[in-house]
Specification:
The protein is an alpha/beta fold. Helix content is about 35%, strand content about 25%. The protein has nine helices and 13 strands. The strands form three sheets. The chain has a six-stranded mixed β-sheet, sandwiched between helices. Strands 11-12-10-13 form a four-stranded antiparallel β-sheet, covered by helices on one side. Strand 8 and strand 9 form a beta hairpin. Helix 2 crosses helix 3, helix 3 crosses helix 4 and helix 6 crosses helix 9. Bound molecules: adenosine-5'-triphosphate (ATP). Adenosine-5'-triphosphate binds next to strand 2 and helix 1. Keywords: ATP-binding, Nucleotide-binding, Transport.
Length: about 300
């Protein structure tokens, strides 16, 4: 599969602070790629570099095989939502889009099309300054779609959305990917990308920590763990730990068990007379998989903070 975004060895400093420290990854068409990491990990800076808005000390960033600045009609190649607040408040949403479209030689018909696509028909003639953050995000996506580009980059598009908005955004990103587009979406909350991202580029401190398909990550995080529902949590924990299992209490009547197969767990509990109402294979959430993946980095950070506080 041809990569639509190729980032290779980006390095950038802001004064003494290292923002990018050898950032390298590719983004494939036809799926949503989550770009995830804590605040300050370098996600926005990477996106700005891809769009030619920030310079780098070394490394390259290509869109469809070319540097952004060499693209003749950039809106036809890549659409981006970087800062949903960046609009002229007194202009109507439709006029904002018309202004952008005309500056790139695009027609009025496309403006009305993208307004419909993002569901802003009812609000298109209202001043964008009065829009909620959710409506601004939709307007930003409409702008990104103007040139019908094969590549989309959305920086924190879930920010400030209500649950309904989050569901809409997930579905919309999925439909853009199914049309064959490469969709790169940054977020610092892994849970937002559940059921949406097919691939993940996890970053920390300016470089890639993990580059993996979501299905592989979830399978690795779920592997071999068993979920047990029991009203006798403490007794079950003691018995299973004695048999060598690693047991974690994950709810008032729930345990997550590693190190023993389900059949053996049932045997041990039955022999010990411990009642239970459910035994099933554990399916990790994206959030859990992410926590596991970044646990070492977090421990290291906590240690550093402690040392700094002394
Ligand atoms: N214009 C700037 N001037 C100085 N430092 C900057 C600037 N932009 C980014 N940085 C620094 O570069 C690092 C990477 O920031 P960046 O915004 O790319 O991270 P991020 O992963 O997008 O984080 P967030 O989720 O908070 O947006 C941070 O340490 C940040 O403080």
């Amino acid at each position: 599969m041809e990569a639509m975004i190729e980032v290779n060895g980006l390095r950038k400093r802001f004064g003494q602070a290292v923002a990018l420290d050898g950032m390298s990854f590719t983004v494939a068409p036809g799926q949503v790629t989550g770009f995830v990491g804590p605040n300050g990990a370098g996600k926005s800076t990477t996106m700005r570099v891809i769009l030619g808005l920030d310079s780098v000390e070394s490394g390259t960033a290509l869109v469809g095989g070319k540097p952004y600045r060499s693209l003749r009609r950039p809106l036809n190649h890549v659409g981006a939502l970087l800062d949903a607040g960046a609009l002229q408040p007194s202009r109507s949403a439709r006029n904002h889009l018309l202004w952008l479209a005309h500056s790139q030689g695009l027609g009025t018909r496309r403006v009305d099309e993208v307004i419909r696509l993002v569901g802003l028909e009812g609000a298109a003639r209202r001043k964008a300054g009065g829009f909620s953050l959710g409506m601004r995000q939709r307007l930003g996506i409409a702008a990104a779609l103007l040139g019908d580009p094969p590549v989309l980059m959305l920086d924190e598009p879930f920010n400030g959305l209500d649950p309904e908005g989050i569901v809409w955004m997930r579905g919309f990103m999925g439909s853009l990917a199914r049309e064959g587009r490469a969709v790169l979406v940054s977020s610092h909350l892994m849970s937002e990308l559940q059921d949406t991202a097919g691939h993940l580029v996890v970053v920390g401190r300016g470089k890639v920590v993990a580059d993996t398909s979501v299905s592989e990550l979830l399978a690795a995080a779920s592997r071999g763990r068993v979920l047990l529902r029991t009203a006798a949590r403490e007794r079950a924990m003691t018995l299973l730990a004695q048999e060598g299992a690693t047991v974690a209490a994950t709810g008032p009547d729930m345990l997550t068990i590693a190190g023993l197969p389900a059949e053996r767990i049932i045997e041990i509990l039955s022999q010990g007379g411990v009642p239970f109402s459910e035994v099933s294979a554990h399916r990790a959430t994206l959030e859990e998989a992410y926590m596991e993946l970044t646990r070492d980095a977090v421990e290291f950070r906590a240690g550093t903070a402690e040392r700094a506080a002394r």
